[in-house]
Input
Amino acid sequence: HNTDGRKLELPNAQYMKEFQSYKTEWKVVDNIQTEPTVKKTKLSDFEVMDLDGEDLTEEFLSEEGYTLMIVAHELKYDSEMATMVIQDTTYLTDTIMVFELETKEETQQIVRSISSIVPSDQRYVKYNWDIDYIDKYKNIIRPLADKALSNGVKVKAVMGGADEDIVRSFKNVTGLDIEFYKADDILLKTIVRSNPGVVLWNNGKIIYKWHYKKVPTFDTMASQYIR
Output
């Protein structure tokens, strides 16, 4: 308002352009915030990375066609340091001359032989997976993923708190041979609270999502949601 009580409302862009003319007689009393043009949704903060931490959100959301996303906001395991015995092998490399009777020529060859084999201890992180949790993947998720892949539907897993070593161990125990990504665990829980959960995407949009207890067979899913 100005000194004589008059009030004036201006768009911010116009005020910033003309503010010099309002400096002496006018005073800003309020800055009205309007609703954003694009409303905030669960996907507004969606961010997915590969296991090295590279942001792949844009590629993920621009994926064409149908994609099944397996969601796990928390992988259930505990870990401990363990020791395994490996065989350290030492090799000897020698050079010999070979005489060819037919060509009357000598050729040089390198021969490699074992010098010694010595057992040694190697420390590593051992992951002890929750049996009931792994069974959900073996009995529900993997059959669904295998059927989807065989029908041309992409399948990707997005995990909370995952790294390359954990995922390698997880793939070994579940038999899931799919692409793995990582994301914030709270965000994943917001998208689907089930652990694991299944989300069907099409062209970057969520079509449907299921708790693992209610996920249908792929044939049922395809007949109802995949066109």
Q: What stands out?
A: The two ends are 58 Å apart (CA to CA). Helices lie at 12-18, 57-61, 131-150, 164-174, 185-191, 218-225.
